[in-house]
Design goal:
The complex is a heterodimer.
Chain A: E1 10-13, E2 16-19, H1 27-36, E3 40-45, E4 57-63, E5 66-73, H2 81-85, H3 93-97, H4 105-120, H5 128-156, H6 161-181, E6 190-191, E7 194-195, H7 203-225, H8 229-235, H9 243-249, H10 254-257, H11 265-268, H12 289-316, E8 337-338, E9 341-342, H13 346-355, H14 357-369, E10 376-384, E11 387-395, E12 403-407, H15 409-413, H16 417-421, H17 428-436, H18 440-444
Antiparallel strand pairs in A: 1-2, 3-4, 4-5, 6-7, 8-9, 10-11, 11-12
Helix pairs in contact in A: 4-5, 5-6, 5-12, 5-17, 6-7, 7-12, 12-17, 13-14
Chain B: H1 38-48, H2 52-55, E1 56-62, E2 65-70, H3 75-84, E3 90-91, E4 95-98, E5 107-115, E6 120-128, E7 134-136, H4 145-156, E8 159-161, E9 191-193, E10 196-198
Parallel strand pairs in B: 2-6, 7-8
Antiparallel strand pairs in B: 1-2, 3-5, 4-5, 5-6, 9-10
Classes of the chains: A alpha+beta, B alpha+beta.
Chain lengths: 445, 208
């Protein structure tokens, strides 16, 4: 082969011949590789590849179509969040952590705030209404996150329809988020001491209607996929990882529950009052991609159940505070939600600008300087859609976090890709990675 | 850590006077009874690991969490005992913390452990001097710590001896320095907004 191939130019290196493939005519590539008489081919998949679930790079060593070795390359989305937090005050920290795992922002915020509250020693002072709102928002967030996992997972295996249904249903949740927080993602809604504002008028109706609609809509994806012979063949027995593998690798979440282990922190180590809700821990015993898919499907209904119970509780708690009473921690203004998003509280501006100098000073000190958190360290773990999300927070007694480290389930669980995929077919690694549901924002932070 | 715009250092005072120095102390060693399940865990460990008093420098119970400060040369032994005898099957990674003021123990590695059998959590903490930042790797005990140790090496420069492939994981391979150490500047440039200039976060007025 002497002619230059614009789609697959090749060059000789010390490791052997390297082909840069950019798409197009594969026949000439196959011909050229066949001419090299190499049995072993190393394929670089990603970081910009539609089926690697974000900017994940997989280096595959293949013999024919069988994977002999996989290595993950990560770090493409590293934004230095943990470093940046150390230069902002404790309240501003929520704005950073919400951007880590961008599909589960409310879980990040809640884990961080629970840790800060533990350091402050105000865990029991957080108003009940704020806690119930947190639980409701987290469960809605679990639905929207699982929807992306199911939709993109199916799309990556070649099924287009489930993606449309999943994103349609996710939209229902995002509309509720937008109504309550003003934003669809990265809300910084959960704050140390409570939540940034109370629910707006009409929220209960919207949530109840949303729950009803989603319960009806979820059946669409179930009928499309469960029992579908192509889907079953692409997922059953693929990406096998048993309980021993999970414990060794520290795997939690749906991957662990797919081994039959009913380990859900909401049940076994309840936080935010999860012990007061009726819901079931969903498990499967197949240890494969199909089991994880079924768990996510069935967890949707459990989350809807919790959301309904939250709305019932919230209606009884109408008018109760959503922020701790301690004015040294709670921000002075309860902001109002305007037509264009989160806006000012006019009453509060009238007070600090017109009547009370002391209020102005207090507001200024608390917002610019922030509150102090007693020195010490805390680790709080919650069940995010992907597994154990742990917030390690260290304070040196100042107004800024001394160190915040997130134990991200995506980061940890991605280590299981070699165990799930080596020895399998190259096409199945796509399903295995999708079943872990890694979110690269969380992996790289 | 940072110098504020007013140039005062190590003071919580923001008036510009800069003469007030607040005393910051982390929680000290705890005495028995520790409360909760912490006595059971330490008793079990003492029974299973006779060199307990030599390996564990101190036991801290703070905010409802148990921390065992372990000597680094004993870490792997303690880890194996905790995993095999006490059934702490999972290690939830390792997180580095840099305390430049603690001379001789500037770098800390913190390991949160989880036992699913006991439904309990504890924490191990190892501290090493900056000049000799070596800690034995626990990857042979808990395989899932592989990437976590790489991250801590990447961010703090702690070398985990015996790790199967200790390379950078989040930063590029040819990066200089370890970004999350306190002596590593955040960087950033000042930003102009409506005629006024906002300094980068690390140069703003510091209250701590």
């Amino acid at each position: 082969m002497t002619t230059f191939d614009p789609y697959a130019p090749s060059r000789d290196t010390t490791e052997g011949k390297v082909f840069s493939v950019t798409g197009g005519d594969w026949d000439s590539l196959v011909q050229e590789i066949g001419a090299t008489k190499e049995e072993r081919v190393v394929v670089n998949m990603g970081p910009q590849h539609p089926s690697t679930h974000g900017v994940l790079r997989l280096v595959l060593e293949l013999e024919g179509e069988t994977i002999t070795e996989v290595r993950c390359g990560i770090g493409y989305l590293h934004t230095g969040i943990e470093k940046n937090i150390e230069f902002r005050n404790w309240t501003q920290g929520t704005t950073f952590v919400t951007r880590m795992d961008y599909l589960a922002p409310l879980h990040n915020e809640t884990a961080y705030c629970l840790a800060v509250e533990k350091l402050l020693g105000i865990t029991n002072d957080v108003p009940e209404r704020a806690t119930v709102i947190r639980v409701m928002m987290m469960e809605l967030n679990r639905i929207s996150s699982h929807m992306v996992a199911l939709g993109t997972g199916a799309l990556e295996l070649g099924a287009m329809g489930p993606m449309f249904f999943a994103f349609r249903d996710r939209e229902t949740v995002l509309e509720i988020f937008e109504m309550i927080t003003g934003l669809r993602m990265n809300m910084a809604y959960v704050r140390p001491g409570g939540v940034s504002q109370d629910l707006p008028a009409g929220a209960y109706t919207k949530i109840r209607e949303g729950v009803k609609l989603m319960r009806k809509n979820f059946k669409d994806n179930a009928t499309l996929l469960i029992g579908n012979s192509i889907w079953m063949k692409r997922t059953q027995g693929i990406g096998y990882l048993d309980l021993a593998g999970c414990t060794t690798l520290g795997i939690t979440g749906p991957v662990l529950r797919a081994t039959g282990m009913p380990w859900d922190l909401r049940k076994v180590q309840p936080y935010c009052g999860y012990e007061n809700y009726n819901f079931d821990v969903v498990t499967a015993d197949t240890c494969d991609v199909y089991g994880r898919f079924l768990i996510r499907m069935n967890e949707l209904e459990q989350s809807l159940r919790i959301v309904e119970q939250c709305v019932d509780k919230l209606e009884k708690l109408e008018g109760a505070p959503v922020m701790v009473a301690d004015k040294k921690i709670a921000w002075p203004a309860q902001l109002a939600l305007g037509g264009d998003g989160l806006g000012n509280s006019l009453d509060h501006i009238r007070e600090i600008m017109g009547t009370s100098m002391e209020s102005l000073i207090h507001h200024f000190k608390l917002v610019t300087e922030g509150f102090r958190v007693p020195a010490g360290q805390a680790y709080v773990a919650i069940e995010s859609p992907r597994g154990e999300l742990g917030a390690s927070v260290v304070s040196d007694g100042g107004t800024r976090p001394y160190r915040v480290h997130f134990r991200e389930p995506s980061f940890n669980n991605l280590q299981s890709v070699p165990a799930m995929s080596e020895g399998g077919m190259v096409a199945d690694i796509v399903g295995a990675v999708a079943s872990i549901d890694p979110v690269m924002g969380g992996v790289d932070r | 850590m940072t110098d504020g715009m007013f140039g005062t250092k190590g003071s919580g005072d923001t008036s510009g006077y800069g003469g007030l120095v607040p005393q910051v102390t982390m929680a000290g060693s705890s005495q028995r009874p520790f409360g909760s399940y912490f006595d059971d865990v330490t008793d079990d460990l003492e029974r299973a690991y006779p060199e307990f008093s030599d390996a564990i420098e101190r036991v801290v119970v703070d905010r409802g969490e148990l921390t065992l400060h372990v000597k680094r040369e004993r870490l792997v032994e303690v880890a194996f005992t905790l995993r095999d005898t006490l059934k702490f099957e999972m290690c939830m990674g390792v997180s580095g913390v840099h305390y430049p003021d603690q001379t001789g123990r500037e770098l800390h590695a913190v390991y949160p452990l989880l036992s699913m059998s006991r439904n309990q959590r504890i924490r191990l903490e190892v501290s090493v001097p900056d000049g000799d930042a070596h800690i034995p790797s626990v990857v042979e005990v808990w395989g899932g710590n592989n990437w976590h140790e790489r991250e801590t090496f990447d961010m703090f420069g702690i070398v985990f001896d015996g790790h199967p492939g200790l390379t950078r994981i989040l930063m590029p391979d040819d990066w200089n320095g370890h970004p999350q150490r306190k002596d590593y500047a955040l960087g950033g440039i000042s930003v102009e907004y409506k005629g006024a200039t906002m300094p980068p976060p690390s140069d703003r007025r510091s209250y701590t």
